[in-house]
Amino acid sequence: MADIDNKDQAEMDPADMEDVEDVEEEETGEDENSKARQLTVQMMQNPQILAALQERLDGLNGSPSGYMESLPKVVKRRVNALKNLQVKCAHIEAKFYEEVHELERKYAALYQPLFDKRSEIVTAAYEPTDEECEWKTDEEEELTVSKQDEMKEKAKLEEEKKDEEKENPKGIPEFWLTVFKNVDLLSDMLQEHDEPVLKHLEDIKVKFSDPGQPMSFTLEFHFEPNEFFTNTVLSKTYKMRSEPDESDPFSFDGPEIMSCVGCTIDWTKGKNVTLKTIKKKQKHKGRGTVRTVTKTVPNDSFFNFFTPPEVPENGELDEDSEAILAADFEIGHFIRERIVPRAVLYFTGEAIEDDDDDYDEEGEEADDEEGEEEADEENDPDYDPKCTFHVPRGS
């Protein structure tokens, strides 16, 4: 990121630059609480921490017992035959995932009219009828008809009173922002300065690759006109591959992410929340004079989601980029599989309660020693057998 220096720096003799030392750094608009909060978020998103955690988890895998080496040659020969069968199984499994992707595309077209109507209600383009708004809660089902009528009349009067007190809002204000804030995985990415921008988010759509094209899906974030950027849609495409690696076919465990591509955000001048301005005071070692230098540096923001690490042509990534990309894809997959199909339940918090119940049940099972030893990702409530993705270590 280029530095934006003041006039004093421009006039300074280059030979004197080595004699300048930083004496303090002041970030504009930050208090102690926000600093602590940002530090926590940074730790959770730190690629080195993620890589260390992954390495620790990898270390939990079993190691060979040495039994194979002790087998007679004729038995090893038969084991090799089993391995060849396993490779064929991996290729069949790859075809299975390709067909699953085709099936997802087919049903995505059936879901879309419902998602479109959801968007129309959220954005006040459509006002649902009384019949469409009827929803019985568990408590209502237990009440008598007369009691229900009495409660409905009371609720109606209260609503009318509220309408008189304030102007009737359009649609469902801050629908998607509330969804993001209710989900830990997304709220960890969310900064305070992101919220005014996300208030303008109208819809999130999932688009699958066309038939015959390489496997991929695109997340589209649709925004109403706003003061922050001129884009109406921000998109991110995840490109996948569903075929065993010839050099290591036994590692195949479903489609793997090959790369993800974001988009350019056309920020309005002075509204880019992915950048921040800091002021640094520098003291000249020789003359003792102090000057203030203004710099523009990257800022933590949800909108960094649209600028993921680039995957080199050879497919090889350093550990930091690999960890960032793996976390990035987890988020994209979660938005596709959970958030978009069940948005209203994350808005109300009901989906979060269901997730918590799943984790509680898992915790009870973990009390069993045998269950604890056999715990794997299939016991994870978020585990999806048709979408186990990996970041490639090479092409």
Q: How would you characterize this protein structure?
A:
By secondary structure, the protein is an alpha+beta fold. The protein has a domain of 227 residues: Nucleosome assembly protein (Arylsulfatase, C-terminal domain, 2-Layer Sandwich), CATH 3.30.1120.90. Helices cover 45% and strands 15% of the residues. The protein has 15 helices and seven strands. The strands form two sheets. A four-stranded antiparallel β-sheet has the order 2-3-4-5. Strands 1-6-7 form a three-stranded antiparallel β-sheet, with no helix packed on it. A hairpin with a 5-residue loop joins strand 6 and strand 7. Helix 3 packs across helix 12.
Q: What strand order characterises the main sheet? A: 2-3-4-5
Rounded mean pLDDT score: 76
Radius of gyration: 27 Å
Q: Gap between N and C termini, in Å?
A: 31 Å
Q: The biggest beta sheet, please? A: 4 strands, antiparallel
Q: Examine the coordinates and then state which fold CATH places here, giving the name of the CATH topology of the domain at 82-128 and 171-246 and 254-357.
A: Arylsulfatase, C-terminal domain
Q: What is the beta-strand fraction?
A: 5-15%
The percent range for helix content is 40-55%
State the CATH architecture of the domain at 82-128 and 171-246 and 254-357.
2-Layer Sandwich
Q: Identify the overall geometry.
A: extended
Number of strands: 7
CATH superfamily of the domain at 82-128 and 171-246 and 254-357: Nucleosome assembly protein
Count of alpha and pi helical runs:
15
Q: Any low-confidence stretches, pLDDT <50, length ≥5?
A: 1-30, 360-389
Question: Structural class of the helix and strand makeup?
Answer: alpha+beta
- What series of H and E elements makes up the topology? HEHHHHHHHHHHEEEEEEHHHH
